[in-house]
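Notebook entry, structure prediction.
Reason for the run: the old model in the group folder had no record of what sequence produced it. Starting over properly, with the input documented here first.
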Amino acid sequence: MGRDSPSYDDECNKEMGFRGPFISGFGNPFKGWKEIQLGFFNPLKRPYFARHIAEAIRRLGKDFDVVHYHGHHPMVGYYIPQKINFIQTRHDQGGDCIIDTRFRDGGVCVDRSPFACAKCIHSNPGFFRTIISAIAVNRYRKETERAYALHPVIFVSDFLRRNYLRTMPNSRFLNSKIIHNFYDEGCLLRVREKALRTEPSGEIGIHVAGRFVLEKGIAQLLDLLVPRLPTGWSINICGDGPLRKESERKYASSRVRFLGHISQQETLLSAANSSVCIVPSVWEEAFGLVTLEALRLGKTCFALARGGTPELMRYADVGQLQLFDDLQQLVNSLLAERTFKSYSNGSPSDVETHLTELMAIYQRNQKERA
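New structure, fully documented this time:
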């Protein structure tokens, strides 16, 4: 179940082969309220949409054994009665951070005060806007805390859970669990086999994938790397976003290719055909699925030692995942390499393994509510 637009029936079928029924349950939960124009977070907006989504779940919840929520309103569970077997997965820093990223002024935000959050929507909020935003953030966090106490919550990394507890240290979780993101290993194997049949070019090919926004670090990486790019090296960048045009204007060439928003299969094939993958995120990734893709495709991966990324070491061979404190260190180390090893082992992160964990949570929670 999800938003009534765009057409998820068509998009999900095309992108990932989804064949199940899709329920159009509610409208756009981010539209309206003019928060940006007004310059403060509205204390009523997120609770309104959370209730709206919860009402749709309550109408249908009795017809299902379990409802597993992956949306962007972590307090939805606060409005769901305990008799419904409701479980949510937290895959970003929502619940702690009202904009989901804990990233401000080009760096990781470490300020836990709700009053500081006002600067994330207005550069100079003043007294009135600061107070209103703080009220909104406090309500958002309190309702999330209550939701976590009522229903089980799955965090995609231990980092995410620990970071939430730094802000809400008195939280009490009902059967919370850490389950990493996972991937269809069969899909990755097919992509890898297809890539292996591709004739090698003799170059060092770099693969980068992500949204062109400040926190993903792609524009910053290109500023550091492209002027020093050795002869015979090339970069494929998959993704789009507000910073793409400027980077493309500065650096687009036969060796620096901006592929834009392409399909999942095309993105994976770009990674599989590369010599090395770089994940330049400068915010604290909750987990980092792009990093996991690179590892499971057998590629050397360079990333920053931030957020949940260090936890992905469990899926890497020795030396496969290389972590750095900042992008300058990453680029310096990258350019010091002349060959990049391909890997074939590592620990799988497949659907079957994680499905077993999920089913156990579903069944235990169902019994407790019976």
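Summary: The chain is about 40% helix and 15% strand.
The old model has been moved to the deprecated folder.
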